[in-house]
Structure prediction request, 96 residues.
Amino acid sequence: MTSVASAALLGVGAAFLLTGTIALLRFPDVFTRLHALTKADNLGVGLIVAGLILRAESPATVGKLVAVWLLVLLASATGAYAIAARALREGRQWPR
Prediction:
């Protein structure tokens, strides 16, 4: 049962990552792209980490997976902020 739940979490997480990538390519401006990409990628990585935690063999491995997930969240937020700040400095406006 654990392997089925793990596989389901990994599959759904991969689907969210794919959806975020498609949104990056399809949305019209930098702000909507950032919003869609960061939301989908953060959820996708979280689901993948949850699926991997179910397969982890030791508490140390679980701790490492959680640390990686937290670092990805931090990097995603920092990168999105930097990109949005640059876009605003260049004079791009929020979509209406």
Remarks:
- The mean pLDDT is 91.
